[in-house]
């Protein structure tokens, strides 16, 4: 059962999901299942024995890796927060939310992922410039698949990857 959360409840759920992703990234193993409860708090995680891998055909430097010039790359990969179908515009024939080179603000809608007939907004994790769009419009995407490369206006700590948030 899915309940619509508001205010601090929505923020708490988002923070718990972010912590689950950080935990997954720190172990290097894929999460198979996560159950998060709010009333009287709870967190359950089931791990697969498989290491986290990048989807084939999507090779993007992690923030903090060196570029060809030897300088650290502080760009952020905006990854899919869920699996579904990636759309660059609100409806067929409409203008795209963003184009390569656009400046975006933190929280600005970048795309939509349709999952089970629900449209989920993909928003910018920080302000910056869109350097690359890695996925074609109307393409299926996997959970944590890189969608966009964002050059932040303020450089993040080296070695970080941001995950987009999905809103219903």
Sum this structure up briefly.
With 168 residues, the protein is mainly beta. The protein is built from one helix and twelve strands.
Description:
There is one protein chain. This protein is mainly beta. It folds into two domains: 1-53; 54-167, RNA polymerase II/Efflux pump adaptor protein, barrel-sandwich hybrid domain (OB fold (Dihydrolipoamide Acetyltransferase, E2P), Beta Barrel). The chain contains one helix and twelve strands. The protein has one helix at residues 7-27, and strands at residues 29-37, 42-51, 76-79, 84-87, 103-104, 109-115, 118-123, 128-133, 139-141, 146-152, 162-163, 166-167. The strands form three sheets. The protein has a five-stranded mixed sheet, with no helix packed on it. A hairpin with a 2-residue loop joins β6 and β7. The longest helix is centred in the N-terminal third of the chain and has 21 residues, at 7-27. The two termini are 15 Å apart.
List keywords for this structure.
single chain; 168 residues; mainly beta; OB fold (Dihydrolipoamide Acetyltransferase, E2P); 2 domains; 5-stranded mixed β-sheet; 5-stranded antiparallel β-sheet; globular; disordered N terminus; disordered C terminus
- Main pleated sheet: 5 strands, mixed
Beta-strand segment tally: 12
* Number of spatially distinct domains: 2
What is the first-to-last residue Cα distance? 15 Å
What is the CATH fold-level name of the largest domain?
OB fold (Dihydrolipoamide Acetyltransferase, E2P)
Structural class: mainly beta
According to CATH, the homologous superfamily of the largest domain is RNA polymerase II/Efflux pump adaptor protein, barrel-sandwich hybrid domain
Q: What's the level 1 CATH class of the largest domain?
A: Mainly Beta
What's the architecture of the largest domain in CATH terms?
Answer: Beta Barrel
Strand order of the largest sheet: 5-8-10-3-11
- Count every helix, treating DSSP H or I runs of 4 or more residues as helices: 1
Whole-number mean pLDDT: 74
In percent terms, what proportion of residues is strand? 35-45%
Order of helices and strands: HEEEEEEEEEEEE
Q: Helicity range of the residues?
A: 10-25%
Which residues form runs of ≥5 with pLDDT under 50?
1-5, 53-67, 159-168
Radius of gyration: 16 Å
Shape: globular
């Amino acid at each position: 059962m899915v309940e619509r959360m508001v205010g601090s409840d929505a923020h708490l759920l988002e923070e718990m999901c972010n912590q689950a992703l950080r935990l997954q990234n720190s172990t290097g193993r894929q999460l198979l299942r996560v159950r998060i409860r709010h009333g009287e708090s709870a967190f359950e995680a089931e791990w697969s024995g498989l290491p986290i891998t990048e989807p084939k055909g999507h090779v993007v430097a992690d923030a903090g890796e060196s570029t060809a010039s030897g300088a650290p790359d502080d760009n952020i990969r905006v990854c899919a927060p869920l699996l579904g179908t990636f759309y660059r515009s609100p409806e067929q024939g409409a203008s795209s939310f963003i184009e390569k080179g656009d400046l975006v603000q933190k929280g600005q809608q970048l795309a939509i992922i349709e999952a089970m007939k629900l449209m989920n907004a993909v928003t910018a994790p920080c302000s910056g410039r869109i350097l690359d769009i890695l996925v074609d419009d109307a393409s299926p995407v996997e959970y944590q698949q890189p969608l966009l490369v964002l050059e932040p206006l303020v450089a993040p700590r080296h070695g970080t990857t941001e995950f987009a948030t999905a809103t219903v």
